[in-house]
Write a sequence for this structure.
């Protein structure tokens, strides 16, 4: 039950993009068409889940015993980058299909702030391993959800008349902020 | 001091472990790639124009090696490069003639308008709104989507006029052909001379009422051609360039003046090859 609450809270209420404003570069950079947005979302979900588990273990078994919790950020960056490279090698060997889907998106998100953010939040909120993994998975799915919605809207935007000064990024920023406002409506969903 | 030393030590150890793990993994999960793929990719133009049907030159190179795709699908490959690929593969490569895109309509700016279109300035969008107010269903809407997608700067376009495609710059990648919502851009061999500048499948009387430069399917050119290279197929006049000898008979016969020479300058097609 608690896991479910963690999952849904990070999926919609505390969505990484729209509530915590993490991972905004891919949100605006890769949301031009639905296909690449879906691939990106898939890759982020995958990496977030794996990174949550691995960084939790690293924190629990290396950083805490050594008493160097202040190294979290830098060690996590290192661990995530290694993990993603490793996963890419494995996928290349074992599943060319999956590699074609995730393609360039996997290495792109090695240094994504949403991925690092989920790992640091796991530790900050004193989560157990199971909670951390669910938190990462839900966060990734929330990211995929929002980036896909955004891509759908932007595909429609291309077909509509936008004043010259607002074309391209400005209208995307405004769209993004309106989506954030809409998601704000979910706040308090788990409070009562 | 101690804190710094411990931090540095732990970080170093972590880094070393990560490096070692990656090194081992790259050994364990190494993927054997045909070295010819890399060599062929180096020969290919690298424009990733997708004219061959593959999304990028690398994918095309791997298709040539792994799936036996024909090496002469590349529209930009010139003689020597093609021979080089043939050498790498140990097969004979025959070059095909370069293709260039031509617009089969001159009537965009002059044909009849039903209403003045003020919507989004794109052919793709205008096609949804009753063809942007054009009475002809087959004409050029002159909003220049083809110009937007051309990667080689071969298309010049002024809004309201039919885009012009420079055969010298055109590589025949076919992007504009796929982009055009009216399907009126066609790829022809660069040596092609006679060109019918109309895509209308309407009846002659309809065409006459809406466009001063539309084909009325009078079949004068079909009958005039000494080589029988011209045919009426599915309502369109088609020229078989394998048979055409560029005698110019059809140009003189056409009552609408819409069969034109693609290479009117002295020197003919040789000048743009």
């Amino acid at each position: 039950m608690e896991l479910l609450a963690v999952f849904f809270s990070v999926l919609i209420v505390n969505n990484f993009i729209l509530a915590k404003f993490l991972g905004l570069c891919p949100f605006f950079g890769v949301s031009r068409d639905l296909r690449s947005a879906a691939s990106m979302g898939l890759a982020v979900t995958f990496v977030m889940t794996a990174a949550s588990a691995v960084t939790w273990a690293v924190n629990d078994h290396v950083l805490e015993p050594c008493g160097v919790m202040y190294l979290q950020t830098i060690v996590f960056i290192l661990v995530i980058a290694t993990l993603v490279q490793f996963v890419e090698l494995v996928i290349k060997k074992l599943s060319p299909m999956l590699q074609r889907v995730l393609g360039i998106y996997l290495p792109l998100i090695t240094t994504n702030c949403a991925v690092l953010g989920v790992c640091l939040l796991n530790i900050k909120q004193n989560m157990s391993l199971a909670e951390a993994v669910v938190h990462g998975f839900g966060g990734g799915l929330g990211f995929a959800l929002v980036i896909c919605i955004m891509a759908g809207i932007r595909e429609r935007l291309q077909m509509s008349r936008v004043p010259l000064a607002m074309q391209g990024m400005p209208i995307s920023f405004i769209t993004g902020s309106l989506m954030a406002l809409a998601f704000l409506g979910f706040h308090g969903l788990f409070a009562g | 001091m101690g804190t710094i030393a411990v931090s540095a030590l732990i970080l170093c150890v972590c880094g070393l472990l990560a490096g070692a793990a990656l090194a081992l993994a790259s050994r364990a999960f190494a993927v054997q790639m045909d070295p010819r793929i890399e060599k062929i990719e180096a020969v290919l133009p690298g424009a990733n124009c997708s004219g061959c049907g593959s999304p990028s030159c690398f994918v095309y190179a791997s298709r040539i090696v792994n799936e036996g795709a024909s090496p002469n699908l590349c529209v930009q490959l010139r003689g020597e490069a093609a021979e080089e690929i043939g050498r790498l593969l140990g097969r004979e490569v025959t070059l095909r003639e370069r293709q260039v895109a031509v617009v089969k309509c001159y009537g965009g700016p002059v044909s009849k308008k039903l209403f003045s279109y003020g919507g989004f300035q794109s052919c793709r969008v205008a096609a949804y709104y009753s063809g942007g107010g054009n009475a002809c269903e087959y004409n050029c809407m002159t909003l220049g989507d083809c110009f937007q997608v051309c990667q080689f700067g071969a298309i010049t376009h002024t809004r309201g006029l039919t885009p012009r495609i420079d055969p010298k710059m055109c590589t025949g990648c076919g992007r504009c052909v796929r982009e055009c919502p009216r399907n009126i851009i066609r790829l022809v061999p660069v040596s092609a001379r006679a060109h019918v500048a109309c895509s209308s499948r309407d009846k002659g009387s309809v065409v006459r009422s809406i466009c001063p430069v539309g084909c009325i399917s009078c079949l004068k050119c079909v009958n005039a051609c000494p080589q029988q290279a011209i045919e009426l197929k599915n309502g369109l006049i088609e020229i078989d360039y394998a048979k055409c000898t560029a005698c110019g008979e059809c140009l003189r016969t056409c009552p609408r003046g819409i069969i034109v020479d693609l290479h009117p300058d002295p020197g003919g097609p040789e000048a743009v090859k």
Notes: The domain at 35-89 of chain B is CATH 1.10.15.40 (3-methyladenine DNA Glycosylase II; Chain A, domain 3). Strands of chain B lie at 99-103, 155-156, 164-165, 185-189, 194-196, 230-233, 236-239, 259-261.
